[in-house]
Design a protein that fits this description.
- This protein is an alpha+beta fold.
- The chain has a domain of about 80 residues: Arc Repressor Mutant, subunit A.
- The strands form 2 sheets. It has a two-stranded parallel ribbon. A two-stranded antiparallel sheet has the order 3-4.
- The longest helix is centred in the N-terminal third of the chain and has 12 residues.
Length: about 120
């Protein structure tokens, strides 16, 4: 094997991976959540009739950068882990109802911010 400077593979050398069907459904639901509203990971899973909140979280972490990811929160209204500050900036910009807990800091007020889901 030759030594020296290695070049990264050409982008067209990578296979095009298709999104799993249920993953696409997750992203479609998230893309419909209106500004100022949220769904929990479990809410999204229920809407798509899926495998649960962890599956939705996995999809969001892998493929969710092109949809409004901050509108999917943990069950207590907390933003996605590791993205709290960025998510809170979006919440402020969209006037998402927030509450300050005594121990848990600022989070989404789920009773006021939870979206009813897409129209059937």
């Amino acid at each position: 094997m030759p030594r020296g400077r290695q070049h990264p593979p050409r982008p067209d050398a990578y296979p095009v991976l298709e999104l799993p069907e249920k993953a696409e459904e997750v992203l479609e639901v998230v893309d419909q959540i209106p500004e100022g509203k949220v769904l929990t990971y479990g809410d999204v899973a229920e809407i798509i009739g899926s495998r649960g909140a962890r599956f939705v979280g996995n999809v969001m972490s892998r493929y969710g950068s092109d949809v409004p990811w901050w509108r999917v929160v943990r069950s207590g209204g907390w933003p996605p882990r590791g993205l709290e500050d960025r998510a809170r900036d979006h919440y402020r910009e969209e006037n998402t109802p927030m509450i300050r807990g005594t121990l848990d800091g600022l989070r989404v007020d789920l009773p006021r911010a939870r979206w009813d889901g897409p129209a059937s």
